[in-house]
Amino acid sequence: MDFLDINALCVNYNQHNHTTSALKDVSLTLPQ
Predict the structure, then answer these.
(1) What is the per-residue pLDDT for 8?
(2) Which of 4, 14, 19, 22 is deepest in the core (most CB within 10 A)?
(3) Is 1 helix (H, G, I), strand (E, B) or coil?
């Protein structure tokens, strides 16, 4: 998976579940 795939997953998860802050934090640590 590349950054865009992970970022899309984070956005998708956040739309359905607010407990995915950990995934969002991981995405923020990746090079942009």
Answers:
(1) 82
(2) 14
(3) coil
Encode pLDDT of 1-32 as tens digits: 577 888 887 777 666 555 556 667 777 776 65
CA distance between the termini of the chain: 14
Cα atoms found within 13 Å of the Cα of residue 21, Cβ hemisphere only? 2
Here the tokens at position 9 are 């997953």
Which residue reads 């802050």 in tokens? Answer: 21
What sign has the CA pseudo-torsion 14, 16, 21, 23? negative
Chain CA centroid to CA 30, Å: 10
